[in-house]
Amino acid sequence: MALKDLFTKNQPKKKKYATIPKETVKNDVPEGIMTKCPSCKKIMYTKELLKNSKVCLSCGFHFQMTAQERIDSFIDEGSFVELNEEMVSVNPLNFPDYLEKLEKDRQKSKINEAVVTGMGSVNGHKIVVAIMDASFRMGSMGSVVGEKITRAIEKADELSIPFVIFTASGGARMQEGALSLMQMAKTSVALKRFSHNGGLIISIMTHPTTGGVSASFASLGDYNFAEPGALIAFAGRRVIEQSIREELPEDFQTAEFLLKHGQLDAIITRTDLVDQITNLLEIHQPGGELEWQEN
């Protein structure tokens, strides 16, 4: 027997161990520094995504934005003045746990309701704007949402300046029953009065815009636009298929489908939105000329 065999034979094999990083090492990469696109699956720096207005740098997928992010990306810096910020919902139908859920959403979203309204400017053009936020009760339309939008329209009418609305909603708020549905009529009447007085209405539908919101003020603009890929619908796809007993097209209820069938005037990518809306606002100024540029 060779001398080396005395040291190699019958020796227990060494076990392999995985190294578990310490907590201090784990925290070297801060949470949220990277974001994965749900469409193309590419991973990018969150900071770069935010610089690009939350539009994927690889495929152009539009991530959802909060109301504050919309204000930061669309309204001239320092020009925004919020309207009716203090308005909050009550519980008119005594729906169980409704007030507690509203309070949780206020703490999570840092806003008091599912829409933020205010006055500001876009490249120097004064507007009144309403921005729905899907992070608050999925942007559902309750009494306060309808009231804030109506007051914003009336403020635009009073000042004789354009009204711009960004919609993002799961529809009417079930906790307020028929009271939420009444907001469809109230906001529509306010828009009709504003339009009759010569007001300009620009509606920008974002993902998702559904239910009573899509069936009322979201679709009543002088210009109806949408972001790419936005879901825009009244009833759910399955409900419609069961009602008509037909299979619907794959792209049904998308912004692209609605543009093809005449329900939208244009689809505008978020990175081009300020320039395109500025063009419209200039067109509607006294002596304005048509300079609309199709993408």
Brief rundown of the structure:
By secondary structure, the chain is α/β, with parallel strands linked by helices. 34% of the residues lie in helices and 17% in strands.
Could you explain how this protein is built, in words?
With 295 residues, the chain is of the alpha/beta class. It is built from 11 helices and 10 strands. It has helices at 5-8, 23-26, 46-51, 67-74, 98-109, 143-159, 177-196, 211-214, 237-244, 255-260, 273-283, and strands at residues 34-36, 43-45, 81-83, 115-122, 125-132, 163-169, 201-210, 223-226, 232-233, 266-267. Strands 3, 4, 5, 6, 7, 8, 9 and 10 form an 8-stranded mixed beta sheet that branches. Helix 6 (143-159) links the parallel strand 5 (125-132) and strand 6 (163-169). The longest helix has 20 residues, at 177-196. It is globular and about 45 Å long. The model has no long low-confidence stretch (mean pLDDT 90).
Q: Key features?
A:
single chain, 295 residues, alpha/beta, 8-stranded mixed beta sheet, two-stranded antiparallel ribbon, globular
Secondary-structure topology with pairs:
Layout: H1 5-8, H2 23-26, E1 34-36, E2 43-45, H3 46-51, H4 67-74, E3 81-83, H5 98-109, E4 115-122, E5 125-132, H6 143-159, E6 163-169, H7 177-196, E7 201-210, H8 211-214, E8 223-226, E9 232-233, H9 237-244, H10 255-260, E10 266-267, H11 273-283
Parallel strand pairs: 5-6, 6-7, 7-8, 7-9, 8-10
Antiparallel strand pairs: 1-2, 3-4, 4-5
Helix pairs in contact: 6-7
What is the tally of helical segments? 11
Structural class: alpha/beta
Oligomer: single chain
Cα shape = globular
Q: N- to C-terminal separation?
A: 83 Å
Low-confidence stretches are none
| Helix proportion range | 25-40%
Q: Tell me the fraction of residues in β-strands, as a range.
A: 15-25%
Total number of strands: 10
* Main sheet record: 8 strands, mixed
Whole-number average pLDDT?
90
Gyration radius, in Å: 25 Å
SSE topology string: HHEEHHEHEEHEHEHEEHHEH
